[in-house]
Amino acid sequence: MKYLERRVVHGMLLLIAVSILCFLFADLAPGSFFDEMKLNPQISSETVAALRSQYGLDQPLPVRYGRWVKSVLRGDLGYSFAYNTPVRSLLVIRARNTLLLTTSATLVAWLIAIPLGVWIASRSGGWEERLAMAGTSFFLSVPELVVALVLLYWVVRTHALPAGGMMSVDFDDLGAWAKLCDLAAHFVVPVTVLVLASLPILIRHVRASMVEVLGAQFIQAARGHGIGRLRILFHYALPVAANPLISLFGLSLAGLLSSSLLVEVVMGWPGLGPLLLEASISRDVYVVVGAVMASTLFMILGGILADVMLVVVDPRVRVE
Amino acid sequence: MGTEAATGSAVRSALVEARGLSKQYVQRSPFSRKRFVIDALIDVDFRVAPTCLTALVGESGSGKSTLAGCLALLEKPDRGGIWFAGNEVSGCGARELAALRPRIQMVFQDSAGALNPRLPAGQLIAEPLEIQGRETGKNLRARACELMEEVGLSADWVDRRPLEFSGGQRQRLALARALALKPEFLILDESLSGLDLSTQAQILNLLLDLQARHALTYLLVSHDLGLVGQVADFVAVMHRGAVVEQGTRQDVFGRPAHPHTRQLLNSCRGIESAFRSARSGGRS
Amino acid sequence: MASRRKIIVAVTFLLSLHGAILLAGFVAPQDPAAQNRDFPFVPPTRLHFVGAGGRIHLRPFVYSWVARPDGLYQYEESREHEFPVHLFVPGPRYQIAGVFTSHTHLFGVERPAQLFLAGTDNYGRDQFSRILFGGQISLAAGLLATAISLFLGLCMGCVSGFYGKWMDESAMRLAELFLVLPWLYLLLAVRSFLPLHVSSGQTFLLLVAVIGTVGWARPARLIRGVVLSSRSRKYVLASRGFGASNAYILRRHVLPHTYGILLTQAALLVPQYVIAEVTLSFFGLGLSEPMPSWGSLLASLQQYNVLVSYWWMFAPAIALVLVTIGYLSVANAFHQQLQSDSI
Description:
- The complex is a heterotrimer.
- Helices cover 79% and strands 0% of the residues of chain A.
- Chain A is an all-alpha fold.
- Chain A folds into two domains: 2-73, no CATH class; 89-313, MetI-like (MetI-like fold, Orthogonal Bundle).
- Chain A starts with a helix and ends with a helix.
- Chain B has one domain (2-278): 3-Layer(aba) Sandwich (Rossmann fold).
- Chain B is 41% helix and 24% strand.
- Chain B has twelve helices and ten strands.
- In chain B, helix 5 crosses helix 6, helix 5 runs parallel beside helix 7 (167-179) and helix 9 packs across helix 12 (269-278).
- Chain B is globular, with a radius of gyration of 19 Å.
- Chain C is of the alpha+beta class.
- Chain C has 13 helices and five strands.
- In chain C, a hairpin with a 7-residue loop joins strand 2 (56-67) and strand 3.
- Chain C is elongated.
- Chains in contact: A-C, B-C.
- The A-C interface holds A 14, 17-18, 21-22, 25-26, 28-31, 36, 137-138, 140-143, 145-146, 149-150, 152-153, 156-157, 253-258, 261-262, 265-266, 276-277, 279-281, 283, 288, 291-292, 295-296, 299-300 and C 173, 176-177, 179-186, 188-196, 275, 278-279, 282-285, 298, 301-302, 304, 307-308, 311, 314, 317, 320-321, 324-325, 328.
């Protein structure tokens, strides 16, 4: 599996590079969390200086980076000045929530996009295709922010589902099944927004890929042999059309994470998004670095997953 | 140009001379240590006689185009020296090189690729003049029209784009462009390949005309032995990066010394004799 | 042909949108900063065509809003007086592009009635006017940031494709770094490392610089591809044979091939960057009150009571969608034109 090995090494190098980039930015930053503190007249400058040296912020950049790398390898990701807790405990919970949201949204989106795209491709040239292209064009033009706000509005007006957050206030008092239902109810709206945001482009790509494959001669041959339409579509055509789609999956991860950040903030879903936003506003350096690294890690893992799928699905990749 | 004159010029010093030219192409695969080394030129000694047509023949991959590229100063050899009109070229600085360039020009095989499809013919032909700063403005256009007429194209077509010309007309365009700077040495890298026989003949006649008028020296790179047999004064045969035989056409074609030359000639004997009988008199 | 017509239609639509926003002072009936403390959260003024006694007017008219005594922020129309809508009415002074001053507005009504086509916010400011003026900010941000991205991408792509070897390698690795990160995460991270409390003018420039710089990677890659393929053409080699310098070859033979890509990328990037600015301002990391960027206009929807009761505060979203549709259709049309050109 030389191909996969290369991809893993590549991913690790990328992580390292991203961490260096983050630290470079942090160093170039005019001012920091403590400069904000300095503006507070109640805190003396000596206290600020003491805090700075306590967090090691008065050391030169390579030293700080080296210390950070060492602590990361031990599992310690630094300290959050704003929350007054280790970054790691914050990240783990938030990352888990974001992962929950994004993986579900991806699954649902692809589960809808593939059958829909395949069906539209099979009816190429008909009104279904024109409707789909017009519909996807329109939805592509609506920014996710707007979709999120509109959905939030609808939910708030109709009281059909809880608007925002991950759990109800009385979550801890509920029984196990009720807890699950509560989670699910809070889940629906953010996932819907994410799915609506990614669906148009997915449907278009599935359709385009399938149309191209359906025009190939081996499909004609299969038809000539009298093989049923459904079988042709899913057993013959789809595996061949899957290659560019898997690449698309790999490439769409970045956009997915950005979208989820937005949705999490608007819907109040306690994921990496709101964490990064707050840390961004309060210049909480280690949290920002941690959140960016976490997102990069997700991207890389997702990319490797895509590569694995590619190797499994497309025999041509194995020959290399 | 008769044989006597050709032999006579062989006594005179060569216009272009190459000694010990070597060039390697190295391709390295990005992640592994493997290197693919191709020996394009191996210790090549080569001479081009002035105001004659020297042909460079050999199969694909024999290094003809690489040698032509080095002589055209478009590629740098790894080792060896090149002399032009007695002056050494290989050690030249940028300024001397720039002064030399107008004297050596090249016409490529693929005329469509060699001419920028977005520019009209006039601008394409005038490009060398523009780069060298020899003419400006209206004079550029006038000179371009002159050159077009000289190569047999109507000056009315000066604003047409290359793809509106036929293959043969495009090669005339490329030729006009190559002549813009009044070079002494013209390298034709498979310029006649890919043209149909009648067009080939027309272009050939044009080339010979121009040679007579401007005292040009030609280097014709070709894999077409029949063509070479018609027009060349001198022939050099290349095989796997080395020049295996060099001499007058009569010597090389009539009394081939190297086994590879004999092999080449045998494979197209039939075509050659058909040519010779078809064009009785030819250029012998 | 069809794709050319599509381009014309799409570009016309886009230009008229931009025209309206550029001439915001003229098109907007009110001053965007003018507060009407007596009329917070007024719903959009309704245009009527049928008057008292069932008379049909050709010219639409409005009724004056009057606060209802029973509830907070409840209004009803006072049917006493009909105020017709006129064209080219005098109104508050404004400046176009900082040069041209005037009093005349495209349309309006006489006092004491006020025309709130998109309602008012909590300070009683006319949303319609604010949307138009906010468009100036958001669109300018998008356009400037696109210019920065394309310029950086062009430079890096040309250097990368032309000079090759280690410059190319390092530039492309750097590009990969920028492309692998989710854009919003990257934007937030970079923004977080920059000072928060600066003047609004500086914030604008900062925002534009950050958004534009972060997005250099994709155009750079595309340009590099074009440069690489142009560079290997025989006519470039021929030009070198004539003694052409690198600058000449870049100018004459390579750059013209990039124009198509630059145009299409521009049409794709502008809406993305406008959305980026709107998102950042919405989060409070970009332009905030009192600057009427579409993002800060939409930010009021984060309050529960506003979201629930005052639906007209969604209006900036419509403007955003219109701009996005405009640019995407232009990008589509360009793309189709380019495809048919290269065939």
